[in-house]
Amino acid sequence: MDIFTLIFWVITLVWLGFSLKKDKGKTLKAIKMSGGMMKGIAGDILGILLLIGLILTFVPPETIKATIGQTNEVVSTVLFALLGSITLIPAFVAFPLVASLVDAGASIVPIVAFLTTLTMVGVVTFPLEKREFGLKFTLIRNSLSLIFALVIALTMGVIL
Amino acid sequence: MTFLKSQLKNNRFLMIVILAYVAVGIFSPDKFLPSLGNTWYYVKEMLMIMPVILLLTSLISAWVPKETIENAFGKNSGIKGSLFAFLLGSFSAGPIYAAFPVCKMLLSKGASIANIVIILSTWAVIKIPMLITESKFLGPEFMVVRWILTTLAIFLMGYITSRFVKPEDLPADDEAAALVDPLSLNPDYCVGCGLCAKIAPSHFKMVDKKATVISQTLSSGDGLAIKDAVAKCPSQIIRFHP
Fold first, then answer.
1. Could you tell me if A64 lies within 8 Å of chain B, comparing CB atoms?
2. What domains are there in chain B, each with its CATH number?
3. How far is B182 from chain A (nearest CA, A)?
């Protein structure tokens, strides 16, 4: 277990200890509820993990690396940003998926663009957002998110 | 049988992947075990963080006083309001569309356009349990750098949007028109957590991963459970007017 995960475990367990001591009933009830929420997405998570296993076996990392290495990085970043905009999957499920791509040697710039637009730009939810906040707000917020996703991705490519 | 049917319906994606595995087992059996082996590596990583995320989400929902944060918005709340907007988004659960009804409610309480953009964006990208998952799979350095850049971008976006969009550009609240039944909800924004069905099973039921109202009749004592469900709903879509 890496140090970061360990720190989170320690913080959480200490907090849990205090919480149990202060209000046992409230704590247990909250855990039960989050458990129910987790059960709802457990099937999807297992599905995506099994799919990753399948993809990695049939498309070996060397092929992924070679394909992504050949494509122009700017083109692939824009493509990944657009791909993230039109898909609506929980980020929770997306992390292991993109990690498998990074492990296979993909560049992080398109990956960051995908992760950011995945959650912040919503083409599927555009009609819902428009109904609640109007066309102007929705258009500006989504375009700005797309632009900043690209900026964040390129900056991360420079820093890391 | 009906149980099996509903399980199949709720886990359609998992079923398709399992079918793919069956096909692999039949047509290229030598790839079957390596696929499972590759999966096992990611399952192990997931199992290391799942319990901590479950606990942390519970603790946040039990102890972070959402009402206090929500009441801290206002037209002149300035930097403090933006900070609260940031906190509210960071400590929430569910996808971005779950934030729409919450933001709508905050707008009616006087939250500014900039703060609404901040809540929507933080709600979408930088939730605390998500950060743990990100750090686990992509490394702490990756997570921290992306967090800092995204935070800067979000505050900038809030400012820019408020320059272009004025409050009168937003559609008026049409909620009053729909108040026929004492109990109603908007399934468009349901995230399928099932809390309401658990808290008040005589009034809510999960159908196709969405909550539905199954009864309008109120017996004595029902009100308390329903009010609890209204308060706990992550996207605040339940309307209750007894």
1. no
2. 2-62 (no CATH), 64-169 (no CATH), 175-240 (3.30.70.20)
3. 22
